[in-house]
Every structure is written in structure tokens, then in C-alpha cells.
Amino acid sequence: xxxxGLLADLIHSLCCLPGxxxxxxxxxxxxxxxxxxxxxIRLSEMLALASKNIGYCKQCRTLTEDELCRVCQDDQxxxxxxxxxxxxxxxxxxxxxxxxxxxxxxxxxxxxxLDGIGPDELNIDVLEARLQGxxxxxxxLATNSTVEGEATAHFIAELAQKYSISATRIAHGVPMGGExxxxxxxxxxHAFDGRRKLNDD
Amino acid sequence: xxxxGLLADLIHSLCCLPGxxxxxxxxxxxxxxxxxxxxxIRLSEMLALASKNIGYCKQCRTLTEDELCRVCQDDQxxxxxxxxxxxxxxxxxxxxxxxxxxxxxxxxxxxxxLDGIGPDELNIDVLEARLQGxxxxxxxLATNSTVEGEATAHFIAELAQKYSISATRIAHGVPMGGExxxxxxxxxxHAFDGRRKLNDD
Lengths: 201, 201
What we know:
With 201 residues, chain A is α/β, with parallel strands linked by helices. The first copy, chain A, has a domain at 76-169: 3-Layer(aba) Sandwich (Dna Topoisomerase Vi A Subunit, Chain: A, domain 2). Chain A has eight helices and six strands; from the N terminus they run αααββαβαβαβαβα. In chain A, strand 1 (55-56) and strand 2 (63-64) form a beta hairpin. In chain A, helix 1 (6-14) crosses helix 2 and helix 2 packs across helix 3 (37-53). The longest helix of chain A has 17 residues, at 37-53. Chain A is globular. At the A-B interface, helix 1, helix 2, helix 3, strand 2 and helix 5 of A face helix 1, helix 2, helix 3, strand 2 and helix 5 of B.
């Protein structure tokens, strides 16, 4: 294919970003070239550096440029709690929220027999070795609340049981600030099922 | 500022793109690193190449990596028509639409006395030299339909008059496929003012 020029090539390349179509890509290209070349150059450098250097943490399997990610390196973190998530992005948002001070383990997927994804495909043995290694007292299951996510959580809860490790599931219910009127019925049913006592009697 | 890691730096850099906030940037970074490093590397290269090599066309002042842009280089284009636009992006969308076969001239702004932008700031003398040079029979004014865009169009129409060049303004009215019910009143008034005869009598 003959190039239609550098500008067209740049617009085409920007379309690789998720959520960016030809119109947004066009807007981005013109903005960068006319008003912010310094940012364009910096973004170019960061993309190259990140693509080349970011791999997976040896211990928790999240994305990092080091052998061990910052959370796994941090002695201040509670190493008795292990939060299990499906993707590195899940671990990232939990960590940005800031409340959880334990460690993570990234499954890189969820059990999905229909798609041929079983415990072997998720390398559950790596997780099992970690649970077996000792020191962990609680496994917090933060897989998504889909059918596959729930099944994965239950599978790992049973695995934890084998090593006498307590397994907990994050709460599902009405989001903070959410108005009942606009909450879907599945979430509402969950919120009622998971109701907690407020008084002592 | 100490770096919070390559991933955080990449997310921060992606926020320089217009319309991209921290959440979208996060989504983009994880998508590229986990599923599409080849595109990330290509985008990095294109950003570097474009930032370094794209300048302005000597003749029409649009963005191009060559001395003369493809439109100005193309002998097949009608060099008697000159379409005047405010930005390179405007010329780009008109050219992509495909109907216009003449040449362009980019103002890089519009007259705006309140902001201190007069004919000198827009380098109108470059345009005047082009009109004076001969060969142009029609100037098509495609500045935006804002107060400043209209004023700019009228100013250039008078300039064209000086060299006996016909000046036309692109039509403003109801967009193709637009439903009257949802069109703003300014556009509707324009559409009535600009009505055309359909029959001969």
C-alpha cells in the first residue's frame, strides 16, 4: 500500500487506541502537530520505552518494568493477604483506590470451560504454589461478578480451603453515591442478599 | 518528581491527547501493553516521525512533510479555484469529502479584533500576493460560520474584488439527512435566506 503521507499514516496509527475512531484520531493528530509537539515526542518515547521494557512481575504477574512489581517489593504491605484479580488493570484500580494494603495475584483471565479455559490455561498451579508456600492467611477474591468470574472465585476458594486459608469475596451491591432508582435489578438483589446488621439486636 | 513507574508515566503521557482523561488513558495503556505492542511501537514511530518531519506547505500553509503539499503538487487540480479555510484540519475534511478539486489556502486563524488578531497577524499579505499572482478566478470562502469567520470571509471577499476575482461563500443550511425538528433556529433562518429556485418560472 502506498503511503498517503505522514499525516494520514499518523491518523491511521492513532486508530489503534481503543475507543479512538478516524474522527478522534484526526482531531488528535492535528492537535498534537499544531499545538503540542513536545507532548507528541514525549508520548512517542514513553510508548517505545514501555513496549520494550514492561514485562510481567515474577511473583504476582502484573505489568511492570522490574523483576518484581512495586507492590511485591514493598515490605510495608501486608503479605498475609492476597487479592486475586482477573487482569493487571483490576489490580491497578484497586491499588489506586488505596484502601487495600495486601498483595495481589493476577489470573490473566477467568475459568471458562466453554472457551476451553480451565485451571491449566490459567496456570493455577503458580497460584497453588504460592498458597502452599505459607504465610498467606486470607485470599480475597476480586474476580468480576460474571458467571465465569463467580465460578473462578469458587474454584479458588476451594483451593484455599485445601491449605486452610480463609477465602473471602468482595462485596457486591449498590455503588457508593448510586441512586436506587437507576440501579439494575441484579445488583439490587445482590444488595439485599448481602445486607448487614447495623444494631446489636 | 519521582517517577511512579513506566506504566504510570505512559498513562500520564496518553492524557496529552485531546479528549483522553485518566480513565481512558489507563484503558489505552493496558490494551496496548497486553494485546497490541506492535501497534504501540508503530504509533511511537509515527509520532516521532510526524513531529520531526511535518511542517507547513510553502504555498497553501497546510501541514505536510514536503515543501509543497500533495494538493499543491497535483497538476490535475483546478488551479483557478482557491478555497480559504481557517485550519489545516478544515482543508483535510473538505479534501476527504472529495467533491472539491481546486486548491486551498489556510489562514491559520480568523480575524478577531477583540483578541488582537488583524490582517497582519494572519499574514493576509501572503494571500494577497497569491491573488495578485494571477490565474485564480474564484475564491471560495469556507471559514466557519461564527461572527469572526463571517467577518473574515467578507474581508477576503473585498480583497478578491480588488483583483477582479469572484468570491463565493459555501452554503449554510440544513445538513444532509438532518431532520428539521432537531435543527437549531440560526441554521433554519440561514436555510430560508439561502433558498434556491427549483423550477424555471
